[in-house]
Write a sequence for this structure.
């Protein structure tokens, strides 16, 4: 649950990985195969020798070429795209579940209040060991991520039913239905904690 665009990340990582793989393979081939090293050296020399002629083919002023301006614009555009991509990573997490404006002021419901309410409702259940709650802002809506850690040997169906009942109570408390991602996961704490006995 975050605002990160997964398809964009995967595309950029795939393209970057392919470029780095190709460069690595080319470097290794240049070090191992003399013909590839000669071709690389020839291509590099031709590119360096042809650069003055390329710059002179599109003069802007006596000392500046349109190619130089185009290169600077390309670098600036790439930098802007990278900054935008970096700032879009992660994010989405918020400390407030909701905010309502009224005539007498505004009311903000903090995530800690919701977390305390859900922990109080669920941790009293003998089958539930721990509850973690976080809130996320996704597509202009706030949703909850609730992680429930059951005790060893607990019934998954009973744990989910208890969590759903607590979520319905939360909806009543808040006066609205929030999107909820509920995950039931085990961990080392559950494996090494003794199960309560009920007489």
């Amino acid at each position: 649950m975050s605002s990160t665009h997964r398809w964009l990340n995967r595309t950029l990582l795939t393209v970057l990985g392919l470029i780095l793989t190709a460069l690595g393979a080319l470097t290794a081939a240049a070090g191992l195969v003399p013909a590839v090293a000669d071709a690389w050296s020839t291509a590099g020399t031709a590119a360096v020798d042809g650069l003055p002629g390329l710059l002179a083919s599109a003069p802007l002023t006596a000392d500046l070429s349109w190619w130089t301006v185009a290169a600077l614009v390309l670098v600036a555009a790439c930098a802007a795209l990278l900054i935008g991509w970096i700032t879009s990573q992660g994010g989405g997490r918020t400390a407030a579940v909701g905010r309502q404006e009224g005539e007498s002021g505004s009311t903000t419901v903090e995530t800690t209040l919701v977390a305390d309410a859900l922990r109080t409702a669920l941790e009293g259940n003998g089958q539930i060991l721990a509850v973690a709650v976080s809130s996320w802002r996704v597509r202009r809506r706030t949703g909850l991520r609730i992680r429930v850690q059951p005790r060893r040997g607990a019934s998954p169906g009973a744990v989910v039913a208890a969590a759903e009942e607590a979520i319905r109570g939360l909806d009543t408390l808040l006066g609205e239905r929030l999107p909820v991602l509920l995950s039931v996961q085990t961990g080392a704490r559950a494996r090494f904690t003794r199960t309560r006995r009920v007489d």
Notes: Residues 52 and 69 are 15 Å apart (CA to CA). The beta strands are 93-94, 96-102, 105-110, 128-138, 141-150, 180-184. Residues 190-199 have pLDDT under 50 and may be disordered. The chain is about 55% helix and 20% strand.
